[in-house]
């Protein structure tokens, strides 16, 4: 049990993923929702690295680099949207933006 | 002492895994977004240390630079740009919080059930693949670069175009209309 294998990394990654999902669904502040999305993307990277090590293949590390690039772009655009929302509503609370709820 | 030498990497895994999980819980529970950002930074650094333990040295550095440097500075700037005093929220969590927690518990239960019933294979660790190019031992950065620029050149170029699009999009969204 103490011997750390790929399974341990996968369990850790799923726990981080679950925490991130809770953050995305439960928080009212858009800044922390974006942070939770970063947590989820990070847990994906842990999966990639664990399987890359298990298989002795570098491809997992390459894909983790692409995931980081996507995360960087997502953070930039997401924070741009957040600033636009703040300019429009003077708040970053997500329950203030309810035009689509009919 | 012998125990430490033998299981040092495993103990480090547990230390950084607990650190990452605690920091992640901090991100979604703390009230002040600035504390959330610091907690997120701790989580990123712990994950970078976990990458080191899995022979992804280059990726660990990229994690520190891009997440700990770039994305974190972006978050801190935005937190400082919005007026935090007006954000005094009555409650941190929205109305969907109980459902979210139930969903996450179900997800974790499902995944743990799968892993506990999964026949664990011994880890086929072949760390040589991470530091060698065509049989020659080099560093991890060189091995990653070799794979990236030889086998994944087109995705790499597409990623650069994607980053350009994201940058232009962020500038357009951020400017005053």
CATH superfamily of the largest domain in chain B: NADH-ubiquinone/plastoquinone oxidoreductase chain 6, subunit NuoJ
Largest sheet of chain A, in brief, is: none
Task: Tell me the count of domains of chain B.
Answer: 2
* Average of pLDDT of chain B: 85
Shape of chain A: elongated
Most extensive interface, chain pair and sizes: A-B, 76 and 91 residues
- Secondary structure category of chain A: mainly alpha
- What is the strand arrangement across the widest sheet of chain B? 1-2
CATH class of the largest domain in chain B: Mainly Alpha
Give the ordered list of helices and strands of chain A. Answer: HHH
**CATH architecture field of chain A:** Orthogonal Bundle
Overview of this structure, please?
The complex is a heterodimer of chains A (102) and B (177). Chain A is an all-alpha fold. Chain A has a single domain, classed as Helix Hairpins (Orthogonal Bundle). In chain A, 76% of the residues lie in helices and 0% in strands. In chain A, helix 1 runs antiparallel to helix 2 and helix 2 packs antiparallel against helix 3 (59-89). The mean pLDDT of chain A is 87. Chain B is mainly alpha-helical and 177 residues long. Chain B has 2 domains: 1-83, Up-down Bundle (Four Helix Bundle (Hemerythrin (Met), subunit A)), CATH 1.20.120; 120-177, no CATH class. Chain B has helices at residues 2-29, 33-53, 57-81, 97-116, 140-151, 153-174; strands at 132-133, 136-137. A two-stranded antiparallel ribbon of chain B has the order 1-2. In chain B, helix 2 (33-53) runs antiparallel to helix 3 (57-81). Chain B is globular and about 60 Å long. The N and C termini of chain B lie far apart (65 Å). The mean pLDDT of chain B is 85. At the A-B interface, helix 1, helix 2 and helix 3 of A face helix 1, helix 2, helix 3, helix 4 and helix 5 of B.
């Amino acid at each position: 049990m103490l011997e750390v294998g790929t399974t341990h990394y996968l369990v850790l990654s799923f726990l981080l993923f679950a925490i991130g999902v809770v953050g995305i669904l439960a928080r009212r502040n858009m800044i922390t929702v974006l942070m939770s999305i970063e947590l989820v993307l990070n847990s994906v990277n842990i999966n990639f690295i664990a399987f890359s090590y298990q298989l002795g293949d570098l491809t997992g590390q390459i894909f983790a680099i692409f995931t980081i690039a996507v995360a960087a772009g997502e953070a930039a655009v997401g924070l741009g949207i957040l600033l636009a929302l703040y300019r429009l509503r003077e708040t970053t609370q997500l329950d203030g933006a309810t035009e689509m709820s009919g | 002492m012998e125990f430490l030498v033998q299981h040092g990497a495993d103990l480090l895994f547990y230390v950084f895994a607990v650190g990452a999980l605690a920091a992640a819980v901090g991100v979604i529970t703390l009230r002040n977004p600035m504390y959330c950002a610091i907690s997120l930074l701790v989580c990123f650094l712990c994950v970078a240390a976990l990458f080191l333990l899995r022979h992804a040295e280059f990726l660990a550095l990229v994690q520190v630079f891009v997440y700990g440097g770039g994305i974190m500075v972006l978050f801190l700037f935005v937190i400082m740009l919005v007026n935090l005093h007006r954000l005094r929220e009555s409650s941190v969590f929205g109305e969907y919080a109980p459902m979210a927690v139930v969903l996450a518990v179900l997800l974790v239960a499902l995944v743990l059930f799968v892993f506990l019933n999964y026949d664990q294979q011994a880890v086929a660790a072949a760390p040589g693949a991470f530091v060698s190019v065509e049989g020659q031992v080099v560093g991890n950065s060189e091995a990653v670069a070799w794979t990236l620029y030889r086998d994944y050149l087109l995705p790499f170029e597409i990623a650069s175009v994607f980053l350009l699009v994201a940058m232009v999009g962020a500038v357009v969204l951020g400017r005053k209309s």
